[in-house]
């Protein structure tokens, strides 16, 4: 017999996800499920690289438990190099800024638990990834407040901020922050620098947390039309060296294989650092995140703003 809490959660889940569950159980050959996208074109190259470099670099020490909270020293150093190389932040990322965890769901669960009390809300641009509700609503009793921005206005800082302000003003709960997704899922568009700047300023003015899910940051295709200034992905350091709000960026790096992920969180506020668990030790191979390492250099792009080409 399940607990009352489990029965309540199961009922919520079955109702909330009845459509995908129904699709999953369908035996109709005419149905094409577009809910999940996978890149099969690059799989042969990915598989070859994984086998080659796991054999070359994997050692007995990688089978041990992690040597410290939040990730091993080697992993955190490699991640900081990876982030600084590909994203050129104005304020360099240091190993001490990063905590890794055993999966994006666990990271989001813990993060929302630490940012929101039961009944609090997070602003999320609609439509959004359905599993956000599992971390927020099911696990933590928080609420997701949809922010509706007309698609043709998603590149307008004024329109986007106005939409967030309107949603916050109409919310019937205490709004604690923004759960941001860039590139957006499911739209796929990349948010312009000016829009991110405006949202960060709004968070600072309204004393809100800013949580950014960037799992698809290196999974875009084609050239970006507008010039991107290195380090311009957030407002200048002059504006945000000592923010009144706590800004947290969730960095869930997708390495072009759905089953090969490493989940980390870049924390610009130290109050929640110790709440996160260690990453599983098999992912603690430092070479995998070096800019000249096998996976990024050979299967990815030196410059993430340029289109991917096989080597």
TrEMBL record:
Its cofactor is pyridoxal 5'-phosphate. One of its GO terms (biological process) is amino acid metabolic process. Transmembrane segments: none annotated. Pfam families: Aminotran_1_2 (PF00155). Keywords: Aminotransferase, Pyridoxal phosphate, Transferase. InterPro entries: Aminotransferase_I/II_large, Ethylene_sulfur-biosynth, PyrdxlP-dep_Trfase, PyrdxlP-dep_Trfase_major. GO terms for molecular function: pyridoxal phosphate binding; transaminase activity. Residues 54-223 form the Aminotransferase class I/classII large domain. PANTHER family: AMINOTRANSFERASE GLII-RELATED (PTHR43795:SF32), BIFUNCTIONAL ASPARTATE AMINOTRANSFERASE AND GLUTAMATE/ASPARTATE-PREPHENATE AMINOTRANSFERASE-RELATED (PTHR43795). Belongs to the class-I pyridoxal-phosphate-dependent aminotransferase family. This is PLP-dependent transferase. It comes from Sodiomyces alkalinus (strain CBS 110278 / VKM F-3762 / F11) (Alkaliphilic filamentous fungus). The lineage of its organism: Eukaryota, Fungi, Dikarya, Ascomycota, Pezizomycotina.
